[in-house]
Amino acid sequence: MRQPLLAKVLRAMGLGWALVGAGSCDGGDHEHNSSTLTTAMQGFMRTHVGRLDTALGELAMAAPRGHAWLQESDKAALLAMRAAWKSAHAEALAVGVPLEYIFPAQAQHLDRSWEREALTLMGMPDPNPFDDQGVVGLHAIERVLWGPESSGEVLAFERKDAAYFPALAPATAADADDFANLLVGKVRAHAAAWLKVSPALGYDQGFVVKSITDEVAGAFRTVITAASPGESESRYSRSTALALGQQISAVGDLWTLLRPTLPKTSKATDIAAVDMAYARLVALRPAPGADELPLAPPTWNPFHATPEDLASPYGKLYVAMEREALGIDPGSFLQALKSAVGDEAEPPAKR
Q1: Is 2 helix (H, G, I), strand (E, B) or coil?
Q2: Cα–Cα distance between 270 and 246 in angstroms, integer?
Q3: Helix (H, G, I), strand (E, B) or coil at 305
Q4: What proportion of the chain, given as a percentage, has pLDDT over 70?
Q5: d(CA 62, CA 57)
Q6: What residues contact 160, with CB distance under 8 A and at least 6 apart?
Q7: What is the largest CA-CA distance in the chain?
Q8: How many CA atoms lie within 13 A of 60 on its CB side?
Q9: How many CB atoms lie within 10 A of CB 136?
Q10: Which among 148, 140, 145, 146 has a CA at the least distance from the CA of 168?
Q11: CA distances to 206, 213, 240, 275 from 334, in Å
Q12: Is 203 left (phi over 0), alpha (psi -120 to 50) or beta?
């Protein structure tokens, strides 16, 4: 029987190390690398936040207004909105971690799960699930688009919350207008604010390293929660495969930005080890077109997994992602990153 350390799993679910700081280069090299990295990160953030806003704009345009949503006549609109939501969610996964460090008050609502958003209600149901108050963000939008079709697992999980209210489609003209203008509009307003201040922001190596490590931890959390489909953050759209694929892609994008700005003391062999480790992460990305990750075996228990469970498609994915995300094994992605970037990848207690 396999018994992973509880501390390892909790550490990964806690979003990795708290890493902040400046790069390790000295003098002019540091200033040049910081400037290069800032320019690259600003472009990265503008691109993805811009695409997020574009996708949400398409969603709002497709949303029926002036009447209750009708199952038959609004079917095409619903499919268009769902497609736009998946595009928006993909962009949010790409920049959600960096945004949370820059704008925590706004970004925490961007991709926060329904139950975490419901904490703001203090145990009371949201009186208007279509406006810009109470439960908001992308998963609130997702709950409107898919929630009325929720599985029994989702209902069983959410009904435990004192703030539970049924997931409903807009049933009046006012509901429909609020959904497009307020619920979707609030996320778009945040995106516009992020784009406005982006040119004034600076980024250093410590910021990007923290974003990478936390993105990897978030990818592992996606795999962990996929074992309980009714509790995953993307439980309404059942798009855990899309989420994992985008998180892994974001790791690669951020590493590509960081790589040219590493200090001169970084060894070529260490940098190559990160490239190889990332290639292993890429191999874990679900096949194109897949929506959901493999189902966990009915007997799955990460702390006491049987050989049969570990040999299942989900078990293999879990073990492989765990290795890369926890940084325990010398050849893991996080250990390779630590060797390549030096002090920037050290937990604060070890600095």
Answers
A1: strand
A2: 25
A3: strand
A4: 88
A5: 9
A6: none
A7: 65
A8: 21
A9: 23
A10: 148
A11: 14, 7, 23, 12
A12: beta
Q: Rounded to 5 degrees, what angle do the CA atoms 225, 226, 229 make?
A: 100
What digits encode the pLDDT tens for the residues 233-249?
888 999 999 999 999 99
Mean pLDDT across 110-122: 80
**Which amino acid is it at 115?**
E
Query: Confidence class of residue 17 from pLDDT cuts 50, 70 and 90?
Result: very low
C-alpha closest to that of 324 among 273, 282, 281:
281
The pLDDT tens digits for 59-73 are 999 999 999 999 899
- List the beta bridge partners of residue 311: none
pLDDT at 230 over 80: yes
Residue with tokens 């897949």: 290
Buried b (16+ CB within 10 A) or exposed e, 51-84: bbbbbbebbbebbbeeeebeeeebeeebebbbeb
266: its two tokens = 């970084």
pLDDT bucket at 343, cuts 50 / 70 / 90 = low
What's the residue count for the chain? 351
Q: 2 pairs with which residues across the strands?
A: 305
CA quadruple 332, 337, 340, 344: dihedral sign? negative
Tokens of 243: 């989420």
Mean pLDDT computed over 117-139:
87
Q: What is the DSSP string of 246-281?
A: HHHHHHHHHHHHHGGGS-TTS-HHHHHHHHHHHHHH
Q: How far is Cα of residue 246 from the mean position of the Cα atoms in its chain?
A: 8
Taking only Cα atoms into account, the Rg of the chain, rounded to an integer number of angstroms, comes to 21
Taking only the tens place, the pLDDT of each residue in 183-207 is 999 999 989 988 888 777 888 889 9
Q: Is the pLDDT of residue 221 over 90?
A: yes
